[in-house]
Amino acid sequence: MRTTFFVNAMVLLEGQTSRILCDPWVTFGNESDSGFFNFPRATLTREEVQEIRPDYIYITHTHPDHFDPITLKLFDAATPILVSSYEHNFTERAVRGLGFHDVRVVPLNDGMALGDEDYVWMEPSARNPEVDSIAVFRLDGETVVNVNDNVFDQTQCQRLREQVGGINVALVPSGAHGPWPMFFDSLSDTEKAQHAAKRAQLQKESFVAYIEAFRPRFVVPIAGGIMCGGAKAKMYPYSGIRPRSEVVAYAREHVSFDFEPVMLSERCSFDTATGQRQGGYVEKSLETETAYIDELARVPSLFGPGGKFYVAPSERIDLSGLLCAARQNQQRWQQRYGTKSEIAYYFDVGEQLLYRLSLADDKVSRVRESDIPDDRYEIFRLPYELLLGMVQRDYVWSNVNTQHMSFYRKGDSMDPELMVLLNYLQI
Fold first, then answer.
1. Are 316 and 303 in contact (CB under 8 A)?
2. Helical spans, DSSP H, in 101-188
3. What is the DSSP letter of 126?
4. What pTM value is reported for the model?
5. Mean per-residue pLDDT for 79-93?
6. How many whole angstroms separate alpha carbon 347 and alpha carbon 403?
7. Which residues, other chains included, contact 43 with Cβ-Cβ below 8 Å and sequence gap of 6+?
8. Which residue among 170, 190, 370, 422 is buried most deeply as judged by most CB within 10 Å?
9. Chain region(s) in the chain for CATH 3.30.1050.10
10. In the predicted model, what is the mean pLDDT of the chain?
11. What is the rounded distance in angstroms from the CA atom of residue 348 to the CA atom of residue 405?
12. Cα–Cα distance, 12 to 265 (Å, whole number)
């Protein structure tokens, strides 16, 4: 069984019968509709991606660095797409919306046959069951688990390992991307550095926890290969994402058994049967890729003057009515989830007044930031055009809340239920 790495979580798994491409995403020539870009720079061409011709494509979830319409449209629409069996299967709908007509939802517990004796077991992430998944493939008699950038769950990992009779290869995230702490205006640079160090340590511990739970022979570090464009590209010293060699070195010191790390750069492969490697690992970091980061920092915003989604201030309307209708829809989902909260949240679109909403009621009001009455709240600073697009279902919160926003938090911690419910603030 051969594993070929491309970028981020884009990995090709090849057995003698089945070839599965996971999460294809390439930002060709710094081209991105999402505001996210490969890091380090991917050198794949469109023609090279088309030549992969996988038997199956596995879409782990619909975050932009895993589900990219630009890249996916390079593949034959008849290619079978594998997705997890979610309760509300937004992933299946999104894939079908691109024109793929052979979308296979893998049954929970039973899994699904691929070619000959090849097989796949797949299920939603235990910690984020709405938006992520985990899969185990059996190819050429070997088992390989892909956890992409799931949040670690001990029980789920151990159960899957027992279900398939052990894991030979584990694709494990060495880093996880997110807005905390680098995009939080409520933190000083010193505080960001402190929180980034804590985040980096937690990611190393998660890497170790995955290895301990699956006990694989081979570990392939993946994920974390993503960067925002514009001014945010310069903020990544506060991301908490560390070089893969550092994460692997930590794991070798803290994992209780011997495992073989398989470090792969773009286009590099490893054959588990023969132990042969194609291509050498070259580590790239914020320090080595300064020219590329400078390029990304100059990428203009889609929502700024001259951007294709820009709305001039003279043409903007008060969004209170739309937000009120969207809040009523969000409230229905809040009741489905059984969420009881009084947290207030605000949208700052660069006007004198912020929009105030709360999970305690369905009211929408306007208030100056200096007059905020709440003791605990979140402010989301974002372009007017983006807020309008989210309310009208042009965008989904979880796909745009990092690259196009900054944050201000008053209070000790994030409210995870609010983060889920913001996906339903739509009319």
1. no
2. 154-164
3. S
4. 0.94
5. 95
6. 16
7. 266
8. 170
9. 313-424
10. 96
11. 10
12. 13
58 CB contacts (<8 Å, ≥6 apart)?
Answer: 20, 21, 22, 23, 81, 82, 83, 120, 122, 135, 146
Domain boundaries for CATH 3.60.15.10 within the chain: 2-297
Q: Which CATH superfamily is domain 2-297 in?
A: Ribonuclease Z/Hydroxyacylglutathione hydrolase-like (3.60.15.10)
Burial of 342 by CB count in 10 Å (0-12 exposed, 13-18 middle, 19+ buried)?
exposed
Bridge partners, residue 6, by sequence: none
C-beta neighbour count of 74 within 10 angstroms: 17
CB 246 within 8 A of CB 61: no
CB contact set of 221 (below 8 Å; sequence gap of 6+) = 172, 173, 174, 207, 244, 247, 248, 261, 263
124-154 pLDDT, tens digit per residue, is 999 989 889 999 999 999 999 999 999 999 9
Residue type, 115: G
Bond into 40 cis (ω within 30): yes
Q: What is the DSSP string of 352-408?
A: SSEEEEETT-S--EEE-GGG---SSEEEEE--HHHHHHHHTTSS-HHHHTTTT-EEE
Do the bridges between strand 260-261 and strand 218-222 make them parallel or antiparallel, or are there none, so unpaired? parallel
Q: What is the total residue count of the chain?
A: 427
Q: How far are the Cα atoms of 13, 25, 158, 214 from residue 259, in angstroms, in the given order?
A: 20, 29, 17, 11
CATH number of the structural domain 313-424: 3.30.1050.10
Q: Would the CA dihedral through 274, 280, 284, 289 be positive or negative?
A: negative
Q: Which two tokens stand for residue 294?
A: 């400078």
The answer to whether the beta carbons of residues 156 and 182 sit under 8 Å apart is: no
Report the C-alpha gap between 400 and 191 in whole angstroms: 24
- Enter the tokens of residue 202: 């937690």
Per-residue pLDDT of 271-304, as tens digits, reads 999 999 999 899 999 999 999 999 999 999 989 9
Structure tokens at 220: 């392939």
Other C-beta atoms closer than 10 Å to the C-beta of 380 total 22
DSSP-derived 3-state class of residue 293? helix
Tell me the sheet residues that pair with 227.
Answer: 37
